Amino acid sequence: MSSRYPSDLTDAEWEQIKHMFDRFQFVEHDPRTILNGILYVLKGGIQWRMLPSEYPPWQTVYYHFRKWRMLNLFQRLCDRIRRAARVAEGRKPSPSAAVADSQSVQTARQGGPERGPDPSKQVKGRKRHVITDTLGFLLGVMVGPANDSDGQRLPDLLQRLLGKVPRLKVIFADSDYKGVPGSLMWRCFHWVLSIVEREDPQSGFDPLPKRWVVERTFSWFGAYRRLNQDYEYHPETSEAMIRLGMSRLMLRRIA
């Protein structure tokens, strides 16, 4: 099967992940074509109803996207590809260090639950709480109102990593996470929180050691128009789109 659009999976990329879809039964449309339709929506930032006719009907594509999201398939896909991508980079499957940060983005006009203002970023919408390894590969994501405190959301985000990163020892973060008690981190997770601060707060943008990788991850989000804003009604859908976008990016490292 040849790729019709740049967002479509190549034969080599599909070979890496096709076993993940073996548990599902398809009558009329194969899973690769459906997944390509989802990736087209993600890359082009279009509405589901505007999906080109080369793909299955948009109702079919959206139905499977919603089903796979509810079955947590995109999370498992992201975790599996990340481990393979780390091995391809000469690293161990599980990282020993991670980086946490957040990104506030505007929401679309249709709104949805869990929205709020972020006065520091002058954004009204949602906040993406993200943790990556030191290569910038996604470990976890949580989407909530933009007025959420980074420190308050961090324990909930880290809860999603339990049992998935056995080698993890330290998490780097900026001063917005100062309020998280180190004793709590160690008692609950047995991980150390290391705060990396600017030496000169007036220096403008300054790539900080260890922490710059998550800023690069945020820039990777910009390669997918659907992630330039939060167009999704439900935060869980936003998280699924982010996981799928990062899976697509990491898949190119191993195929």
Overview of the structural elements:
It is built from 8 helices and 6 strands; from the N terminus they run H-H-H-H-E-E-E-E-H-E-H-E-H-H. The protein starts with 10 loop residues before the first helix and ends with a helix. The chain folds into 2 domains: 11-70, no CATH class; 95-228, Nucleotidyltransferase, domain 5 (2-Layer Sandwich), CATH 3.30.420. Strands 1, 2, 3, 4, 5 and 6 form a 6-stranded mixed β-sheet that branches. With 255 residues, the protein is an alpha/beta fold. The chain is globular and about 55 Å long.
Low-confidence stretches: none
pLDDT averaged residue by residue: 92
- Label the CATH architecture of the largest domain: 2-Layer Sandwich
Element-level helix/strand string: HHHHEEEEHEHEHH
Number of strands: 6
Which bin fits the share of residues in helices? 25-40%
Question: What class would the helix/strand composition place it in?
Answer: alpha/beta
Short description:
By secondary structure, this protein is of the alpha/beta class. The protein is 37% helix and 16% strand.
Feature tags:
alpha/beta; Nucleotidyltransferase, domain 5; 2 domains
Lay out the secondary structure.
Layout: H1 11-17, H2 31-44, H3 58-70, H4 73-88, E1 97-106, E2 116-118, E3 123-133, E4 138-145, H5 150-159, E5 170-173, H6 182-189, E6 192-195, H7 212-221, H8 235-251
Parallel strand pairs: 1-5, 5-6
Antiparallel strand pairs: 1-3, 2-3, 3-4
